[in-house]
Amino acid sequence: MKKLKRSARLVEMTQYLLFRPHSLIPLTVFAERYASAKSSISEDLAIIKEVFEDEGLGELHTLAGAAGGVKFTPRISKEASLDILSDIRRQLEQPDRVLPGGYLYMSDMLGQPGLVNDIGKMFASAFADKQLDVVMTVETKGIPLAYATASFLNLPVVIVRRDNRVTEGSAVSINYVSGSTKRIQTMSLGRRSLKEQSNVLIIDDFMRAGGTIQGMIDLLKEFHATVQGVGVFVESTEVDEHLIEDYISIAKLTGVDPKTKQISVVPGNYFT
């Protein structure tokens, strides 16, 4: 790369870090990339670090030594999270979202790249200090959230299927009980999709009783994997009890009245 002015170098370095979260980048990479001395690179990184932390964008960690470098950990401030939640509540409480049976229509929200990206950043911030190998979800509506979260954690995504597909090769399948409908359903995961003893973060779009998430946890036992965290976009409180106790939710659905079309949404435990 050609030698850049310092202002341009700062912009390019910032973008380089933002697109490589949780990756240790040696100073020599930047020194060679910008044909600059390591001392100049260190000064630039100090400026970027200060801006990241002052603006609540994340943390820039410096590791000393021959094998050292810098690592960017995305974060999101409480103020920014509350602004996102305000938008989520405004959209979720629209009366025309109520479906027959008291279900809530959310597919349009999960199709908004900006909103999904914000939710992914919130999950990534909440689980940033966990030792993780993959982000897992079940098809289909949780997939955008899983990819958004994984992009900020710099991790691969594993998708659990509702049925076994020939393109997945040999697979492990289990039956589980849906927490809301009490029906027996099946989910499967290709053996090549996940290494044994992996550390897994589960992300899902909606949790009523938690039967689907519990099914994924049971499926992971077949791979001797460890669940390091569970993130849920919206949880419902209209159940006697959740099958899952340890999880983080962004929003909490406290009431849906099919007659009046009134929907009540409060902050999830992410904010507590």
UniProtKB/TrEMBL annotation:
InterPro entries: PRTase-like, PRTase_dom, Pur/Pyrimidine_PRTase, PuR_N, PurR_Bsub, WH-like_DNA-bd_sf, WH_DNA-bd_sf. Keywords: DNA-binding, Transcription, Transcription regulation. GO terms for molecular function: DNA binding. It comes from the Bacteria. Residues 112-237 form the Phosphoribosyltransferase domain. GO terms for biological process: negative regulation of DNA-templated transcription; negative regulation of purine nucleobase metabolic process. The keyword Chaperone does not apply. Residues 5-74 form the Bacterial purine repressor N-terminal domain. Belongs to the purine/pyrimidine phosphoribosyltransferase family. PurR subfamily. PANTHER family: HYPOXANTHINE/GUANINE PHOSPHORIBOSYLTRANSFERASE, PUR OPERON REPRESSOR. Homodimer. This is Pur operon repressor. It comes from Paenibacillus oceani.
